[in-house]
Write a structure and sequence with these properties.
Length: 547
């Protein structure tokens, strides 16, 4: 590529593709990695209550005759193999048929003393037995905050991607730091709600902000890397919780993880898509020149370029609309409404299935920390492998396959057959189903960004996250309370049906691989054709647009 100037019209997408090229520069990789690290912090915070509020029911000593008698009764049981989390909870809380059911809870300091060297807020604030539900509630309140924060997508369409992302991540950082000095579970609950609101604003803003700076041929690997950091955060919080024994210091680590993505957001310019759709072509060109320098290309390539919308009239300008007018587009353009509703359902299914299993896996295995570490590793592998079909097969078919595999696997899990010397069919089927859900979880982010028009992308992502957070709240309830009160087989059947419907329903949506991204609601209704490179220009050494 030479430094010769162009005299032509380009869409923003074509302009980004032009300067990005087939490869990735070192500066690009480092900056995008810094941005993606935010999701590791988000995952860290999401699972923090599990470790910060951990109750070590296997680490106590009896100091009263009542406790000693219970211990002797427990030891006389034929199936007793040593004090662990399960039977320790039965002893302290007066639970378990044929054990201590109906007996009063033991009192810390009077009947027993903790022997653990871990200072969790669960131990410090006495959140065990009947008060343990407060820890679970504090975790759920984070998702209530997510639900409220999902409406923040409107802010990114009004005030800009960069301002929205910076506001969101700054709010998360402030809330995380205040959480460190929480003096009671009730103050901690308030901070969890605020954290959930801020986190959702930051997650929507950063992902859209990053993808609108990414070339079309790099979106799959960018999305995969972004989701991979969620799994890495899962692994990170498990490892840190094992090494750091004080919950306040563990929370401080979560604050530190936010510094790098904050710096990355400050370095990035405003989204060229957002600037163009708001008729700020000068700002859009400055962003494109910045991207050219990032990819080691001359920033003069856009000097004689006019940015155009794919279906715009009148010199490529896009008519600026108000917030209320953009909301009316969902009624005026039926296809935009239909696509958004289908996406909302997909995200709901992902939320209820993913978070329904996220807290159940923690009960697997004899070691509390390993039982959380292994699912994180499996999820990381899923996010890496999903990039292959997303790149070579397509978005729609891949996501449909993930949902269908999950639905079929959940049905197979109803078969109660033990595998001699290994695992049950139920466990293996649920594991495969959960991996399918994880693949869907990691893929719908990019698919929704590519489906939604630029003028409505923040809103659509917000509505999708609203659906996922409804599912995130209902998922753990379904796999614990509902499964115990009704039927675990019934819950798995519901999960299966939801996933199968999503797998077939997504076929109603268009494929987005190698298709242009719409800028306005009017562009959504047309059938998208595969992008083709422009014919070679007559002038020698002139630039050529294409991917």
């Amino acid at each position: 590529m030479t430094d010769q100037k162009m005299d032509k019209q380009l869409t923003v997408e074509a302009a980004i593709d032009l300067v990005s090229g087939p490869g990735l520069s070192i500066k690009h990789i480092l900056l995008w990695t810094a941005l993606m690290s935010f999701l590791a912090s988000a995952s860290f915070g999401s699972y923090f209550p599990t470790f910060g509020g951990y109750i070590p029911y296997d680490s106590f000593t009896c100091i009263s005759p009542n406790c000693t008698l219970r211990m002797e009764k427990l030891e006389n049981k034929n199936d007793y193999k040593g004090l662990d989390l399960s039977n320790g909870k039965l002893l302290l809380c007066g639970l378990g048929e044929d054990y201590f059911e109906g007996e009063a809870e033991l009192v810390e300091g009077t009947d027993f003393s903790w022997t653990t060297d871990r200072d969790t807020f669960g131990v410090s604030w006495g959140l065990f037995c009947s008060r343990a539900d407060l820890t679970t509630l504090s975790s759920s309140l984070g998702y209530v905050g997510h639900l409220i924060g999902s409406f923040s997508g409107n802010l990114f369409d009004v005030f800009g991607r960069k301002k929205g992302a910076l506001f969101g991540i700054a709010a998360v950082l402030v809330v995380n730091c205040i959480t460190i000095v929480s003096v009671s579970i009730y103050m901690y609950m308030v901070m969890r709600v605020l954290w959930g609101i801020a986190l959702m604003a930051a997650m929507d803003g950063i992902f859209v902000f990053m993808m609108e700076h990414t070339a079309s041929n790099h979106r799959t690997i960018t999305n995969g890397g972004y989701q991979l950091f969620w799994a890495l955060g899962y692994i990170l919080v498990t490892a840190c919780a094992y090494l750091i024994k004080n919950w306040r210091w563990l929370q401080a680590v979560n604050c530190i993880t936010l510094v790098v993505p904050v710096v990355a957001i400050i370095l990035l310019p405003e989204s060229p898509y957002y600037a163009f759709i708001n008729n700020k072509e000068k700002v859009a060109k400055e962003s494109l020149r910045w991207l050219a320098r990032l990819h080691n290309k001359p920033d003069t390539v856009f000097d004689n370029v006019t940015l155009v919308a794919e279906e715009a009239e009148g010199g490529g300008k896009v008519e600026e609309v108000s917030f209320l007018e953009s909301m009316k587009d969902f009624l005026v353009y039926r296809e935009l409404l239909v696509q958004t509703l289908i996406q909302l359902y997909m995200w709901f299914v992902v939320g209820i299935s993913y978070y329904g299993f996220a807290f159940v896996w923690g009960q697997i295995g004899s070691n509390f920390y390993i039982s959380y570490l292994l699912p994180g590793i499996a999820e990381a592998c899923t996010y890496i492998l999903m990039m292959i079909p997303l790149t070579y097969i397509g978005r729609r078919s891949t996501i449909a396959a993930f949902f269908l595999v999950a639905g079929i696997a959940f049905l197979i899990s109803l078969i109660r057959v033990e595998i001699p010397g290994f695992l049950s069919v139920e466990y293996l089927a649920c594991l495969i189903g959960a991996m399918g859900v994880s693949g869907g979880f990691g893929s719908v982010y990019m698919y929704s960004v590519e489906l939604a028009p630029t003028a409505h992308r923040g809103k659509v992502m917000g509505y999708c996250h609203f659906g996922s957070q409804i599912g995130a709240i209902l998922g753990p309830i379904a796999t614990t309370i509902v499964a115990d009160a009704w039927s675990s087989e019934g819950v798995m059947t519901v999960f299966s049906v939801l996933c199968l419907i999503a797998g077939f329903l997504i076929l109603r949506l268009p494929e987005t691989k190698d298709r242009p991204v719409p800028n306005t609601a009017a562009e959504v209704k047309r059938v998208r054709k595969v992008k083709e490179p422009d014919p070679a220009p007559a002038e020698p050494n002139a630039y050529r647009v294409g991917v």
